[in-house]
């Protein structure tokens, strides 16, 4: 019975179960209303940009699965001190990305695509380092899928086009991000 741990088994079961249940109703149990609204807007923006409902659904579902799995790992204290410092670095980078996205939205024509791409790819790389030993290659692929999708230069330039079709969605995303920042959640 060496190597057996009921705690590890329970955590694996939770990750597996929660990843299979990544639907809107289950998300509402784990994610607050503001985050849920942001996810809805990310879906709408992705769908409008790609013209592909299935792809938009998949990218948001992948995002939810990653968030839930990382949350389970935190809840079960699975991260080492070194990984916790990586997590803090990721959180800081994510906060910086949110503040930059909000700033670019509030001050028209200040959008710098290279800056947003760098922030998003930096977040992706930090998150991949954080979960390297904890999640499967399939989950790593989900992380790449989400960050690569939202750091797409064409999507970013369309998103920040003031009179463009994605601008109202960006406005709602930035309103939600701003609320999360003010509440200290991001």
Task: Give descriptors for this structure.
186 residues, mainly alpha
Description of the structure:
The chain has 186 residues and is an all-alpha fold. Helices cover 78% and strands 0% of the residues. The chain is built from nine helices and no strands. It has helices spanning 6-20, 24-30, 33-50, 53-75, 81-106, 113-131, 137-150, 153-159, 167-182. Helix 1 packs antiparallel against helix 4 (53-75).
Structural class: mainly alpha
Shape: globular
Number of continuous helical runs: 9
Sheet having the most strands: none
Distance between the amino and carboxyl termini: 42 Å
Mean of residue pLDDT? 88
Order of SSEs, N→C?
HHHHHHHHH
Q: Could you give the count of β-strands?
A: 0
Give helix % range: over 70%
Q: Could you list the spans in which at least 5 consecutive residues all have pLDDT below 50?
A: none
Strand portion? under 5%
